Sequence to fold (149 residues):
Amino acid sequence: MKEYAVDDIKNVLRPRLGDDVPLLLFRILRIIGMRSILGETSGATLYMMGKRVGNMLPATTMEQFAETIRDLKIGIPQVEVIDEDHITVKLYECITCAGFSYTGEMFCDMESGIIAGMLENVHGKKAKSTQTKSWSLGYKFCEFEVFLY
Ligand SMILES: [Zn+2]
Fold:
């Protein structure tokens, strides 16, 4: 199976429809489609997928990290550096869960992986991200705890 890079897939030629898709379509694919096919392993699989995607996105500074997350409309990140190897990322307007009502479970694993993958690029270290807050737990933002190692 051929592997594609971002450069291979970025040319969009849709003169009438443009390069935007409704966010609802993304959420149907992401929350209903992927979860129903992947089942109980969906969290870990989506995290690994996100991490791979994050590694493919160029970012060498925290400013580029924040800009890219915002430009791709994954959300609006607010970064807090706790110490050298511990970063907290609040994500406002999260692509996957913003507006969700309380469900008691969190499912922004792909976003968590993207954040970890991009922060690996920025810091030149491995990163592990864990989601700690979500709209689906009653917050108005998502939050991820990232540890570099
Ligand atoms: Zn979220």
In short: The CA atoms of residues 16 and 36 lie 32 Å apart.
